[in-house]
Design goal:
Magnesium transporter MRS2-I, mainly alpha, rod-shaped
Length: 143
């Protein structure tokens, strides 16, 4: 985890000399601060205890919170898509079963029934979708 602390890594990689050639009055800390724009607090952290990684842990915790929020949104999207796929599959099965052109005597003169079967299957599938989403909201799975 210490290797992830980029400001410490940057300061360690810079060459350190006792004095600046242009201004010998500047110390090493001042020349580092002027050359790379590192603030006084981060320089104090660099020269402090190497095992102190509290700031890094807080930064990583903030990143993990963002990742967790994104995963929650993706899980919600997956729930909606799965419920929608289930409902469309139900309509497809009903349309496939009743859309087969098998020549039976009872098929003739009842062509209007296919429309009503599809309407009722679509209504039932929509009702199933609404029930799934309302149950998900009631249990707290969806915001």
């Amino acid at each position: 985890m210490v290797n992830l602390y980029l400001s410490r890594k940057l300061v360690r990689m810079l060459p350190v000399s006792g004095f600046d050639a242009a201004n010998p009055a500047l110390s090493t800390t001042d020349s580092l601060k002027l050359s790379c724009g590192v603030s006084r607090t981060s320089l104090a952290a660099v020269h402090g205890d190497e095992n102190d990684i509290g700031e890094l842990e807080m930064l990583l915790e903030a990143y993990f919170v963002q990742i967790d929020r994104t995963l929650n949104k993706l899980t919600t999207l997956e729930l909606f898509l799965s419920a929608g796929t289930l409902c469309l599959s139900m309509i497809s099965v009903v349309a496939g079963l009743f859309g087969v052109n098998i020549p039976y005597k009872w098929n003739y003169g009842h062509g209007y029934m296919f429309k009503w079967v599809l309407i009722s299957a679509g209504t039932f599938s929509g009702l199933v979708f609404v029930i799934i989403i309302s149950q998900a909201r009631r249990r707290g799975l969806v915001g």
